[in-house]
Amino acid sequence: QVQLVESGGGLVQPGGSLRLSCAASGFTFSNYAMSWYRQAPGKERELVAKITSAGIILNYADSVKGRFTISRDNVKNTVYLQMNNLKPADTAVYYCNAVFFRTTYWGQGTQVTVSS
Fold this sequence. Notes:
The protein has no helices and eleven strands. By secondary structure, it is mainly β. The strands form two sheets. Strands 2, 4, 5, 6, 9, 10 and 11 form a seven-stranded mixed β-sheet that branches.
């Protein structure tokens, strides 16, 4: 059974930090490129960051460059998103995504709220 389970979301003040984790199971994690997406209320889901199966970072959304860092651990089957200097505009549900050729999996999402 394929699972992507996100954790680490929550409420944080502007300027604060959070570290999201996405634990994968049920498939060969090391074969898959991993991404973080987010969706704010009333907006389309957008790509935040993407990392290849080998750990090469492909891209970040312009709005998070210099503040967010994606990484992965192919032993722990986990992908991370370190988020620093958070802004209210970062408030969204964050989703983990796995892709290998035409196969894609999604997690259920974790809520991140940035507010004072």
